[in-house]
Amino acid sequence: MEESNQFATIEMEEIHQESDSVWSQLLQNFGGYGGWRNNSELCTKLHTKLNSFSSKHIDSAEHVEIVLYSLSRGYWLMKAALDWENPYAGKEPISPLSVSMLRGLQWRLVMAYNAFELICVALMQSKTLSPKIISDFVQKCQLKEYADPITSPNKDRAGLKQWLDSSVITDEGTEGEALLDFLGLRCGDRKMFQSWVLAESPVDTWDGSILLAKALRNMSAHGALSASKVGELGLRQPLAVLPGDLSEVVHKALQQLL
Question: What is the pLDDT of residues 47-56, one digit of tens each?
Answer without folding.
Answer: 999 999 999 9
